[in-house]
């Protein structure tokens, strides 16, 4: 049996290296406990998405299981930092749970696309971003349902944006692992280029879109808090966020 105190003195990197060799359940438990904070943070961030059907503790419990599975699948030589690796999978897990609990309508994607198309059309016709009421009226849809679909779209977009950088990294040719970063100039260059492109993409956004992206991803405020800062409604913040993420993804796909 591993001594608990001995394991607690080791760094995360040391524990992962040791676990790769020993596959000890004690090491896995210690690693899992060190990363539970990520599950709780994501559970809080995505609370609006699942709150009508699940409790936060349900998400945390499922997230702990996801961490344990992730520890077995994680390869320090090939993958990003474990925090990044597991965060994407936990967010995906939450969305999967929502779908399994039938909270997300089967025709969600069609309805979300209709809302986006309506927003673009009405913006051109009205010469200003349409309100939820105007969109709902145009689509002959209940306003609350319209807002609900947009909130779901916001959380799905969060996951999509998180995957942009990792998707680009996973498409790169496999290289011989090395601890010397300088010996992998291609990888370093591609990452710098990706970050530069993402920066350019953010700079191409409108001022309100940039502010929402900054408050949400950098300052880590939730939609309600951002709405208070910008003195607009929470659904309006969701609209701005969704539009900004769509533009970022399109820019990245085109330029990188």
Describe this structure in words.
This protein is 76% helix and 0% strand. With 256 residues, the protein is an all-alpha fold. α9 packs parallel to α13 and α10 (185-203) crosses α13. The radius of gyration is 21 Å and the shape is elongated. The N and C termini lie far apart (49 Å).
Estimate percent helicity: over 70%
Give the overall shape, derived from the CA principal axes: elongated
DSSP, total strands: 0
Element pattern in H and E: HHHHHHHHHHHHH
| Separation, N- and C-terminal Cα atoms | 49 Å
Subunit organisation of the chains: single chain
Strand pairing plus helix content: what structural class? mainly alpha
Radius of gyration: 21 Å
How many H/I helical runs?
13
Task: Describe the secondary structure blueprint for this structure.
Elements lengths: L3 H5 L3 H11 L2 H21 L1 H4 L5 H18 L8 H19 L7 H19 L5 H8 L3 H28 L14 H19 L3 H12 L4 H8 L3 H22 L1
Helix pairs in contact: 2-3, 3-5, 3-6, 5-6, 6-9, 7-8, 7-9, 9-13, 10-13, 11-13, 12-13
In short:
This protein has 256 residues and is mainly α.
What keywords describe this structure?
single chain; 256 residues; mainly alpha; 13 helices
